[in-house]
Design goal:
binds zinc ion, 12 helices, eight-stranded parallel sheet, Arginase, Chain A, alpha/beta, binds ligand V1S, globular, binds calcium ion, 10 strands, two-stranded antiparallel sheet
Length: 406
């Protein structure tokens, strides 16, 4: 009816838990989990659920997260909330992770770069612990679908948090679900290629595998001075010369493409297809993880690139055309309506569907996503096909207005 079809010749699985939408990083914080509400509504509004197997994610386990992260850090994340934070900060096991104070620091930092001060990059907020283990659970379930051969492309738009370190949160990222996914993939695949089109450098993933020749990391990012003040664009790493840890087997298995602000579609396509194509040729990966951070789009609140949803999607199409097991993850993206448009468009690309420039008027109820997953995976039952009543971007804008209360 809406023309959405299952792809021929490959299977796509989609992993999500609507609970992540309720989270709130703070009034002025750019990370808005409700961008995932918009994304979900667009995906369901277009009927793309009929083209994939959809799973409701469950939380990752402590032991799963400890496969990369330090045990004390994982314990802290499990217990932390705005209420428990002050007490946890006094426990000797955690005080070691409190950074020294510098003159003029605007935000007060607690253990692991976490903070309850307003304006912090990695705030402690209500429901945070549930949120972290849920987005990680969704990535691990997606990974499991891939490694077990149940699908060829697995998607988790709530994942892709590439800055988190072994024992430290960084840049809105607390658990590095990407590193956990790749570690799991290495049990099955000989070589994994990680590609990162978020406008920021994928430093956490690069660092985790800097000694590892079975993982090649390739990040495209804004690099250089942020503005006239001379401050560097976050996180300030990812120089062309950084190619993996020198003197280890991982040397030459990290690639960085530093880019100045304002890059357009044509220039990005030239860089992306040239470098990615050559990397695939040389590395011959068995599987690919693509972090699809949407802050590389023009008009992003934090990003400084000038690329369109069309080109962002063409990066996904280019990688998909390699016909290797593919894990698609989200990441940054701070102009919510564009994030939703991009990730919905890319869900269509993954499932070989073309979206008309319209969103069906009827937006399915959120309950449609209920079910179990991760370990005890169950597909949610197909629900009635949607009416073809059309609406245009106005409806997306209406949702933006309703959700954009802070
Ligand atoms: N750019 C940027 C930016 N903006 C903020 C911010 C603004 C308001 C707040 F209430 C809280 C934070 N932080 C930053 C960056 C971090 C960007 C993270 C991108 C994440 C990703 O898209 O790659 C993946 C999800 N942080 C900084 O620039 C660091 C500071 C240097 C400035 C901001 N203060 C709060 C900390 C130090
Ligand atoms: Ca990047
Ligand atoms: Zn980013």
């Amino acid at each position: 009816e809406n023309g959405i079809q299952r792809p021929k010749g490959h299977k796509v699985s989609f992993h999500y838990n609507s609970h992540v939408e309720d989270m709130h990083f703070g009034k002025t914080h750019p990370m808005k989990p409700w961008r995932l509400t918009l994304t979900k509504h667009l995906v369901l509004g277009h009927g793309l659920q009929y083209a994939m197997d959809t799973y409701e994610a469950v939380s990752a386990g402590t032991d799963e997260v400890r496969k990369f992260h330090a045990p004390d850090y994982v314990d802290f994340l499990r217990q932390v909330s705005p209420k428990t934070f002050p007490e946890l900060c006094k426990i000797p096991r955690f005080t070691r992770a409190i950074p020294p104070k510098h003159e003029g620091d605007s935000v007060e930092l607690g253990p692991y770069n976490l903070s309850t001060s307003p304006g912090a990059d990695c705030p402690v907020f209500d429901g945070m612990s549930e949120y972290l283990f849920l987005y990680t659970g969704a990535t691990l379930a997606a990974t499991h679908q891939l490694t077990s051969g149940a699908c060829n492309i697995a998607i988790n738009w709530s994942g892709g948090l590439h800055h988190a370190h072994k024992a430290e949160a960084s840049g809105f990222c607390y658990i590095n679900d990407i590193v956990l996914a790749i570690l799991d993939m290495l049990r099955v695949y000989a070589r994994v290629l990680y590609i990162d089109i978020d406008v920021h450098h994928g430093d956490g993933v690069e660092e985790a595998f800097q000694r590892q020749p079975r993982v090649m990391t390739l990040s495209y990012h804004r690099y250089g001075p942020y503005d006239e003040t001379g401050h560097k664009f976050f996180p300030g790493t990812g120089d062309l010369e950084d190619i993996g840890l020198k003197g280890t087997p991982g040397e030459h298995f990290a690639l960085n493409v530093p880019i100045p602000s304002g890059i357009d579609d044509r220039q990005y396509k030239f860089l992306f297809e040239g470098v990615t194509g050559r990397a695939i040729e040389a590395f011959n990966p068995s599987a690919i993880v693509l972090q699809c951070g949407a802050d590389s789009l023009g008009g992003d609140r934090l990003g400084q690139f000038n690329i369109n949803i069309k080109q962002h999607g063409e990066c996904v199409a280019f990688v998909k055309n390699q016909h290797l097991p593919l894990l698609l993850l989200g990441g940054g993206g701070y102009t919510a309506r564009n994030v939703a448009r991009a990730w919905c468009h890319e869900t269509a690309i993954a499932t070989d569907n073309k979206l008309v420039d319209k969103v069906p008027y009827f937006v399915p109820r959120i309950e449609a996503f209920k079910g179990r997953a991760h370990g005890d995976e169950k597909m949610y039952p197909s629900f009635e096909r949607l009416h073809k009543n059309e609406c245009k971007d106005a409806d997306l804008e209406y949702m933006v207005k309703k959700l954009e209360h802070d």
